[in-house]
Amino acid sequence: YVADPAHMTDVAASDLLSEAYLAARAREIDPKRAQDFGVGGPKLGGTVYLSAADASGMMVSFIQSNYRGFGSGVAIPGTGIHLQNRGYGFSLDPASQNHVAGGKRPFHTIIPGFVMGKDGPLMSFGVMGGPMQAQGHMQIILRTQLWGQDPQMAADAPRWRVMSGLAVACEDTMDAAVVAGLKALGHQLSFETPDNSFGFGGAQ
């Protein structure tokens, strides 16, 4: 159910956030073993991200993605800028939650991030890497806001990526104790080098 909340038909976004539903889903989690909850996998894409801030605290969190190949294949005359084709996330099936229609937002992974405090924004940040983006955001947030790491340390830290089923990909610099713990839970691990930026998401 990843779609524009205003156009969801067989379930409302509020239903997915209800305490009863969340409690029921939480009861399905067994902290002693890895599980396959049967969720789908988003399609792959391509993205660039830029974060900037000045001494006065003004921040920009900017993300752009052509998505498939050269995007829509349409270039703005005289600029060399190709327009994206994130509308690919829509469906032509009228029964789909993401059926294409005017005024609807398609499913996509364009996620420019801000960390907000009570007095305003604290940090602009973002992660590239298709379906890794949301997972990467969570890892950056945990490291900076809960564990006190600075943004560079958080971005450099080894990351993991939940794949399909019980499969979890890890950077090969992951702490051995973490690796052993994941294996003990039943996760099926694979390892990739940190320079595989798409696999684990580039970050700023």
Structure described in brief:
With 204 residues, this protein is an alpha+beta fold. It has six helices and nine strands; from the N terminus they run H-H-E-E-E-E-E-E-H-H-E-E-H-E-H.
Can you give a write-up of this model?
The protein has 204 residues and is α+β, with helices and mostly antiparallel strands. The protein has 6 helices and 9 strands, in the order H-H-E-E-E-E-E-E-H-H-E-E-H-E-H. Strand 1 (48-53) and strand 2 form a beta hairpin. The mean pLDDT is 84.
Q: Can you give the helix content as a percent range?
A: 10-25%
**Outline type:** globular
Mean pLDDT: 84
- What are the segments in which pLDDT stays under 50 over at least 5 consecutive residues? none
- What is the distance, rounded to the nearest whole angstrom, between the alpha carbons of the first and last residues? 29 Å
Q: Total helix count?
A: 6
How many E-type strands? Answer: 9
In terms of DSSP E residues, the strand content is 15-25%
- The ordered string of helix (H) and strand (E) elements is HHEEEEEEHHEEHEH
Instruction: Characterize the largest beta sheet: strand count, sense, and whether it forms a barrel.
Output: 3 strands, mixed
Strand arrangement, largest sheet? 7-8-9
* Secondary-structure class: alpha+beta
Cα-based radius of gyration, to the nearest Å: 19 Å
Write the layout of secondary structure elements.
Elements: H1 13-16, H2 19-27, E1 48-53, E2 59-64, E3 75-76, E4 81-82, E5 113-117, E6 120-125, H3 132-146, H4 151-156, E7 160-162, E8 167-171, H5 176-185, E9 188-192, H6 197-200
Parallel strand pairs: 8-9
Antiparallel strand pairs: 1-2, 3-4, 5-6, 7-8
